[in-house]
Amino acid sequence: MDAQSHAAQLRADRTTHLWRVWRTVHEVLAARGYEISQEELEMSRDMFISKYQGGADEVESVVRTQLKLRADPSADMIKRDTPMATAKNKTPTTTAGTIWVEMCPDKSVGIKQTRIFAHFLQENNYTNGIFITQEQPNAAALRAFDALHELGMHAEHFKEEDLLVNITKHELVPRHILLSDEEKKVLLNRYRLKEQQLPRIQNSDPIAKFLGLKKGQVVKIIRKSETAGRYASYRFVY
Question: Which of 26, 96, 127, 198 could lock onto 81 through a cystine, CB 3.0 to 4.6 A?
Fold first, then answer.
């Protein structure tokens, strides 16, 4: 293979890589309850290039600075993520909100890039954000997201390679369903349990991270059974 053909193949491989990552990003958002169209979920590689191509770049057909999006919560997500009304708070505000997703174009990522991302979320009142990088940022860089929690905001980080495949589609991965506050209360009352008495799942677990599960939430896991058909278990996120 000559140099020109090799460069063309490398460019095609990089484009396919970004397409697969971006397709999974949309699947992540849809799984969490955001409004994502079927057209976006089924976007072909050619459509991806047409929509996000960055011009006559010799290395990339699609450049990462083009890959950013905003998604709004669906009605079902808003209902699920609205706390139960109490005597003190009869009209609670939903914790669901808009999310901003961005792919960092820089291969090496430090605190400068994460601070810029965190500042963008804050300035534009995004409730949630996902920052995607090529390499793993150091711990100091990711600490730039900590201050957002005090403002009721939440920023997450994914590496591109973690989004090449939708892990929830694997045949060995059971279905996970996040419970609303009301469903969580009904469950605990039914079995006379405290949430800490439930089996646990770390919020850093790949499935928990995919679904954006937060500490204190409860997720329902539906598994197949040869005898019972299906059965449900529950996990407390910690």
Answer: 96
The fraction of the chain above a pLDDT of 90, given in percent, is 87
Partners of 59 in beta bridges:
none
Helices within the chain (DSSP H only)? 3-32, 38-41, 45-52, 75-80, 111-123, 139-142, 146-149, 181-191, 206-211
The radius of gyration of the chain from alpha carbons, rounded to an integer in Å, stands at 20
Per-residue DSSP letter, 134: S
Cβ atoms < 10 Å from Cβ of 3: 7
CA distances from 116 to 104, 106, 122, 129, 188 (A): 11, 13, 10, 12, 41
pTM: 0.92
Set out the domains of the chain in order of their start, with CATH numbers: 3-165 (3.40.1340.10), 168-237 (3.90.940.20)
| Averaged pLDDT, 12-36 | 97
Using CB atoms within 10 Å of the CB of residue 28, give its burial: 0 to 12 exposed, 13 to 18 middle, 19+ buried. buried
Give Cα 53 distance to the centre of its chain: 24
Q: Report whether 118 contacts 134 (CB < 8 A).
A: no
Mean predicted confidence (pLDDT) in 35-39:
97
* Residue 221 · residue 232 · CB < 8 Å: yes
List the structure tokens of 212: 């954006």
Query: Which amino acid, 136?
Result: Q
User: Concatenated DSSP letters for 191-236?
Assistant: HT--GGGS-EE-TTSHHHHHHT--TT-EEEEEEEETTTEEEEEEEE
